Amino acid sequence: MCLGIPGKVVDVEEGPLRLGRVAFGDVVKEVCLAFVPAARPGDYVVVHAGSAIEVIDEEKALRVFEAFRIMEGP
Question: What is the pTM of this model?
Fold first, then answer.
C-alpha cells in the first residue's frame, strides 16, 4: 500500500529527467514528472516518494483535500 498526495504543478523543467515544482498548499517541492509526460503547469498530480504517478482532475484533488481537512478536525 502506498500513500499518494495530490499537488498542483507550478512549472515544468524538461531535460534528461523531467522535473517540476509541485505545490502542496503553501509548500512547494521539486518532483520527478517522468511518469506523467502529459502533466503541465496547472494540472494536479498524485505524488508518491518524490515522483508524480498520475494526473488527476481538479475535482478529485479537491475531494482529497476535503477528506484531509475532515481528518485534521477542528
Answer: 0.89
